[in-house]
Please model this.
Amino acid sequence: MKKGFRFYIALWGAKAVTVLLKLLRRNASFFPGKFATVVCPGFIGKIDKPKTIVAVTGTNGKTTVCNMIEDILKDNNYTFIDNRYGSNIDAGVATALISGVNMKGKAKKDLAIFEVDERSSPKIYPYMTPTYLVCTNLFRDSLMRNAHTEFISEILTKNIPKETTLILNGDDLIASNIAPENKRIYFGIDRLDTDGDKCENIARDIIVCPKCNSKLVYDYVRYNHIGKAHCPNCDFKSPNIDYLVTNLDLENMKITLRNGDLQEKYDLISDNIINIYNIVTVITVLKQLGLSSEQINESLKKQKIVDTRYSEETVNGKKIITHLAKGMNPIACSRVFDYVRKYKGKKAVILLLDDLHEAEKGSENTAWQYDTDYEFLNDDSITQIIIAGARYLDGLVRLEIAGVSKEKIVYQRDEITAVDKLKLDDVETVFILHDLYAIKLKEAVKTKVELMLKN
Amino acid sequence: MRIEILFPEFCNLFGDMYNMRYLKMCVPEAELIETALDEVPAFVNEDINLIYLGPMTEKTQEKVIKRLMPYKERIEELIEKNVFFLFTGNAVEVLGKYIENEDGSKIEGVGIFDVYAKRNMMHRHNSYLVGMYGNIEIVGFKSQFTMMYGDNSSSYFLQVEKGIGINEESKLEGIKKNNFIGTYLLGPILIENPLFTEKVLQAIGAKTDIALKEDTLAAYEARLNELKKLRK
Model:
């Protein structure tokens, strides 16, 4: 694509803005790209790009997957550009591309790893052809932004370039069917002992065959629409998996991954199914990029889920576990609730799930709570639930509708003083489940729980 | 007491199905009939006290229209007979004249109400609402790709105090004809509006009180106060 005068004005201006922002110690991971795309429409299409581009999209897990891919690549001395510290929309991608070219607009690196927001597809893919596009999964997300999975999968299908090879979650019947004409590679996890015949989740976004409307037959259900299914009346079915976990050994924290004739073992860094999917995704991408299983596994072992997403510590013999539970994201919260109920021993749960931005604007739309499996918190092993924050009364009603006894629930507006009512005698673990924007609040609550346990 | 939920395998977005679960909590003896899209709706041949249809995807709207079209006269008859209907989110659009796509193409609706909807798939409208239903203040949220047009001045559900009506220029929200209520409000509106739910229970002849009354009322009052403080 011809660059032209406007392109260079946009590029040089963006580079100057980057220097200025850095001198002012401001974040330079969004505005330079925004500036460039405003000055020069189609800027992403005109700028020179690395030869290999990996784009990672999907409802849940894209940040974790990108971070792990990048850390393992770095550990193996690969150099690349990324938008790790920037936004995952077009401006963030443009900023990363700008950082990866010289003043003549020539690419300095051969590889790029980009996290891409699904809704930004129309602003990115018409101008940039990823070598690989990874889709971790497609679930219900913020209803205000993403509406429903049909809308998001159509956006992806419409905008993904034909030349891009897709790396898809083959256990997800929605994600595995985007852009059906493209070359594709599937990853997945074979049937587990914990899989069932019936779905126990509220949200299921593919119940009937998208081809003929017949009710799908699930060979097994893992959660929501994750599992294996086929249509009894046409050829629609879950795909054959290229990178398949054939053995999940949680006792020794290892997986066996089959790819063709190869059977390889990898270490797990988390026993949570959502993170196991993330790890399988990462291995699949890195194998496609040419890393050996030894290279991957040696670096994988050093990985850790970042503290803002998961942390655990023991104080006076009791555990405190913090776990990200993205508010307004029903499946992310449901997975965490499921993890909590299945976690060994008695536990108390502190819920900090309000979207603080929405709370500031007035009143959060809590419809998402009714797509979320609060019923999982109605479990004998959970002895107390503390719900606090702006929407504490809505949370109370939701828990009661889920069947949780009101006697078990502490509900009040102020999050910090609510912790005073925590009953620690009978529990082995205190879970603090928090929204993405509540990191500071989570830390304050955690500090208070630590103090209570020390005293 | 018989409540029919239409096409729950499709029309179950945004937690709306909990409106019916909540009604069941309020009226434990109620029979919930879940009718799949490939089945003949129970209301066609049987007496039903409340018929519910929740929000759906755009493709599903076309399937639902096709399914309900043969029963247009029956639906009109039931509306005249004061049978209670509750259609939430974009469900009400299927009973309009048509739904217009961005390219001008039109999907013919069942045609019971003299209104139509226009889609704008790259602009999702999100807003909150405070409106009057008789002397009851209703709170709720909208999240939609469409706006509705047509004259609902003699058949609206809510007089809007904060937020928008059937489109951005309107202050009259939804459609109400006898006991048919179609509203763009979505999510658990019966849980969020216990005073309205009391009216629904009365209208369908239930003799029970609302479930979790004290706590739903407290949550409702809190939200109402928050929304009233907002400017628009």
Residues 147 and 168 of chain B are 8 Å apart (CA to CA). The helical segments of chain B are 18-26, 58-68, 72-80, 189-192, 194-203, 213-229. The mean pLDDT of chain B is 95. Chain B touches chain A at residues 9-10, 13-18, 21-22, 25, 36-38, 57-59, 63, 121-122, 124, 126, 128, 141, 143, 145, 186-188, 191, 212, 215-216, 218-219, 222-223, 226-227, 229-230 (CB under 8 Å).
